[in-house]
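User: Show me sequence and structure for the first protein, then do the same for the second.

Assistant: Starting with the first protein.
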Amino acid sequence: MSHPTRRLDPTIHQPTRLGILTAAAQVKRIDFVSLRDLLDVTDGNLSRHLTTLESAAYIEIEKTFEGRKPRTWIAATPAGRKALAAEIAALREIVGDADSRSAAPKRSPRTATG
């Protein structure tokens, strides 16, 4: 079996995209401004990451109007929720491996390298 880092999805693993998908998966949908403020990113930066996630079919973007004011909504798709669950499982395995190694008896530097 391969190391759990091999199962990390590069589309999701980038910190801003992980934040987007995590936030979107916790609610039915989230608006662009709330997401931007939550992640503390610029409009352009958020838009670029949303495009990447939308291209992977991990999110859906809906543009609406409230009166004359445009509003953009972001929702995690079933594929996005599944991909996020797989990413979290791989991260948990990595953390579990690291925790178990830190609890193991320490080896001398010679034993550890050779």
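Switching to the second protein now.
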Amino acid sequence: MASPILANLTAQVAQNVAVESSAKVLIDGLAARVQAAVEAALANGATEAELAPVQAEVDALTASSVELAASVAANTPAAERR
């Protein structure tokens, strides 16, 4: 019979991975929308210098998403990766 402690831990890990994956989708979507706004502003005459602070935020969101994905992958048991 499986240990209830191990079963609870396994369930919690699965829940955390699902939540973290959802967070990554949210972060990626937000970064993409802001990036599209930056590109539209550039196309309409804004300069890269004017948009540098916004681009820095897009870059930070993207880096955060990459870090989150790496953390989830590193902490997901191989049997759960597909």
